[in-house]
Amino acid sequence: MIEQRIEAICHKTIDNCSDEELYSALLVLVKEESGQHVTPVTGRKLYYISAEFLIGKLLSNNLINLGLYDEVRDCLKSHGKSLAQLEEMEPEPSLGNGGLGRLASCFLDSLATLNLPGDGIGLRYHCGLFHQSFADGVQNESPDLWLTKDCWADRTEKTYTVRLADREYSAHLYTISVIGYEGRVNRLNLFDIDTVDEALIREGISFDKTAIDKNLTLFLYPDDSDDDGRLLRIYQQYLMVSAGAQLILEECAGRGCDFHNLADYAAIQINDTHPSMVIPELIRLLTQKGIGFEEAVDIVTQVCAYTNHTILAEALETWPLAFLEKVVPQLVPVIRQLDEMAKSRSEDASTAIIDDDGHVHMAHMDIHFTHSTNGVAALHTEILKDSELHNFYELYPEKFNNKTNGITFRRWLMACNPRLCALIEKLIGPGFKKDASQLRRLAGFKNDTWVLEQLIQIKTANKQDLARWLYSSQGISVNTNAMFSIQSKRLHEYKRQQLNLLYLIHQYFEIKAGHLPAAPMVAVFGAKAAPAYTIAKDIIHALLTLSRVFAADAQVSRWIQIVLVENYNVSAAEKMIPACDLSEQISLASKEASGTGNMKFMLNGALTLGTMDGANVEIADLVGDENIYIFGRSSKQVIHRYAARDYAAADWYEADPNIRRAVDFITGDAMCAAGHRESLTRLRSELISKDWFQTFPDFNAYVVRKNQAIADYAADPMLWARKALINISEAGYFSSDRTIAEYNNEIWHL
Ligand code: 26V
Known about the structure:
The protein is of the alpha/beta class. Strands 5-6-7-2-1-8-9-12-13 form a nine-stranded mixed sheet. Strands 16-15-14-17-18-19 form a six-stranded parallel sheet, sandwiched between helices. Helix content is 48%, strand content 14%. The structure holds ligand 26V. The site of ligand 26V has 19 residues, from helix 6. Ligand 26V is lined by residues 98-100, 103, 272, 309-310, 312, 314-315, 376, 405, 492, 592-596, 614.
């Protein structure tokens, strides 16, 4: 069947097809096949609006979800072709920065798998997150032009007119089919304008930020370190929400909605504050259709719900009213009226939408004018209620709720770790693929020597795969008998890659002093630093430089190798996560809203080394103390210390010889000879004079806990494998199917 269909699409035999032709043919085949699965919508439908959808490559996942993967792989194999090789040709759509965008994509997979009608709404950026390369120990950025001839995003006939500043733009709709696992087919709607011009890109990823007709959807979330960049973000956000709101109203009207009853037809989830302007935009459109202002506000409040993804104050968007007056003057009267209403509900200035300085607080508008505000892990939601959004919680206790994040097991187990998936299926059958709670049955094998040995073998084989890939892509050889510790996530001070850096330096001194580690280690990092985030780039530089210093020292490199994976993205994560022994989740407690990498590593049999932050807290609760390595100050202690403003990094530096030794090494002779003194000096002084995310108070606890993990790993591999098995068996809770079922039962009611 498959063979005939591929040959019919190509008009020649498989043997005569090039890899490019086969890849194109599979794209056509998947699109034809998914067309068969589209089912009409009845009742309420969800629209998940998000500035980011970090979809990753789609071919394998779509084939798996259509149940065609094995058949296609075997068919190609019988002709001497490899599906894995064809997958390498697919460009990765990196339309997101990290967890927030990947979460949106996992949610779309689960919606379709659970047979729920739910479409995504976003932007078709021509360049996703920049491509990262390293040269001379420094991160370089280049444009990621992912739109190639064969593409999952289909151009439709539909356009929507959007008014921006003094001009009208035509937002063109593109769609990507979202194929559920043995489920329905939903849609990811992405808007773009036809006049975008890739020739606008100059050196690296710089471009003229003021040429809106040419740059509007040119880049994912352009740099917002200057006003032109910030304005461009507002242009992008409004293009997305205005076209999106028009699409929603059109679809609902098409299904018989008269707009007074919009809430019976649509639920809208606002993913962080980037799509918040959908609130005033929908109110504006509804009033244009003859609905009174107050009723429009009620309708929109019933339809919309908001998810908060961070407590970092600097990440909560506020826009100067003057910016909104320039780009979206039509929204300003609506926002002013909403601000009046908010002020009539509470006199507390901290809950105002427009503050005394004329800044519009997008999150405040979300909380006042949606019916639900949720955090993304239990601890995060509690911190929102108790501290960050406490005044809102007092005003609307009924609106606050928690939805602990999740990940799709189709991509993060079935597709990326076929060996482990096959073992699990052999042990407990295939039911876990749709009902992740069945993974618990694996715990019954915790004393089964054969199963534990299999787990060890699978991990070794996955490490060998990763090693081969590192060698072929970056020319790096790693010791696959070593323990693999992996910290992969965006580079940010609160995530504390610098704590890992200090640990590695500490171990250098220990090895030099003859205190050898219990096992050799490969310390792997994957991280992109925002182009304008100087300290983040300094941390990357320090890691790259340290990696060179270690590699040049035979005594040290026998024990520790440091690897920075270039251009960390979803595809790289799919190779790294199955090979990991120790998952580094070491953010400053209270700062990581949830984390989702932590869940992916756990599911693939890594043990977590982490602080009591985000979803680590829930992982620890599930697996128990003996199956996780927890260290560091609690979120309560951290929040207290911030409130007291009494943290002085310099005091810790002065008082602790181990901290001083590690910090001073950053600008010592070896590092300065291999790297750039200016960058290294800046990092060292930043740590001593600021250390905003309190690495020093957690330093010793981190060293002790990590060395304990290495000792356990070395002492008894079978006991380690047993701990890994417990982690896998408890990972079912973190399936995004569970998360989506909760959103549906408690917020959307589809
Ligand atoms: C944004 C920004 C923007 C400006 C400066 C610094 C900064 C720092 C963080 C952010 C994050 C924005 C929202 C976000 O991506 N949150 C992530 O959402 C994930 C999915 O819920 C969650 O797992 C991560 O913990 C959370 O950081």
